[in-house]
Amino acid sequence: MHELGIAESILQRVQQEAAQRSGARATKVGVRVGELSGVDPEALAFGFEALVKDTPYESLVLEIDLRKRVQRCRACGREYESGMLFSACPGCGSEDTACIAGDELDIAFIELEDPACV
Amino acid sequence: MRVAVEEKVLNENQRLALELRQRFHDHNVFCLNLISAPGSGKTSLLERTLESMSRDARVAVLTGDIQTENDARRLACAGFPVKQITTGGTCHLDAKMITKALADWDLEKIDILFIENVGNLVCPASYDLGEHAKVVLLSVTEGEDKPLKYPSIFLRSELCVINKTDLLPYVPFDLAAARENARKVHPDIDLVEISCTKRNGLDEWLAWVSRRQQKAMGAPAL
């Protein structure tokens, strides 16, 4: 995956949020990365660092929340982590399960300094 | 202060993809997004597909590559509308490119739109193009462990087409293992085995397309 392009999209969203809040300074951005998303978290962190270096966003912290693949069993309702490969429900053994998490690539939150407090 | 955002990073693509999906629905266009590593046979499969269509079929193709119009030229031989999207460097097609490519086409005149993605098993998996289904191709000259190595695209595809079956006697490809691996990652994935060169298995592929099209056209409004 082209993590630098992803890092750019994240930074653009942060800039958009800061602009909407009278130029408040963004300090942290929280991103949720599922293990099936195709994004390598280390490469993303590296790309982000390279992107903000020597810019006004150099101190912006990227917090990456890694999410595992989670399946929900349609037979018994149990939710369980299944890793990259599919596995049957550890509760009832059913193979009728659905992937409910693990392919996220979301911006969860942005932390900003309250301009009034600066 | 912390502001909850809860948006996909690829939000903008998602927004455009939803618009495309709505337009396809409004104009009864059935759209498939074909994805594979370079050289698995996407263009060949589309060539065979277009050849099998009647002259008055309302089919169109968008084909993506980093460089050249070679694929569009090949596909245009069948006589249906074909357009090349040349990305210049981007390793996948995105919804913005599709929107732009469709700008001068009348969707009312298209029943089936095939999108041939850039040859890449990683990035295209994450970019919704508004399609009804993704189809992943895998050829027997690749490894049977491909689904395990690239789980994301196999998980997101409804159909896995295994191509170049005519070469099975000459390669160590384990077909049973490939099927098993695809189902390990995505138990419900449909599987079709074909040889574009020898024209084997194409009926099964065409039947899948037809069934999937009927299902799509019968679906309720978004």
Give the distance, in angstroms, between the N- and C-terminal Cα atoms of chain A.
38 Å
Biggest β-sheet of chain B, characterized?
Answer: 7 strands, parallel
| Order of strands, widest sheet of chain B | 4-3-5-2-6-7-8
Give the number of helices of chain B.
8
Secondary-structure-derived class of chain B: alpha/beta
Radius of gyration of chain A: 18 Å
Q: How far from one another are the termini of chain B?
A: 37 Å
* CATH fold group of the domain at 2-67 and 102-117 in chain A: hypothetical protein PF0899 fold
Q: Estimate the global geometry of chain A from the Cα principal axes.
A: elongated
Order of helices and strands of chain B: EHEHEHEHEEHHEHEH
**Outline of chain B:** globular
**Low-confidence spans of chain A:** none
| Assembly form of the protein | heterodimer
Give the number of DSSP strands of chain B: 8
The biggest beta sheet of chain A, please? 3 strands, mixed
Uncertain parts of chain B: none
Structural class of chain A: alpha+beta
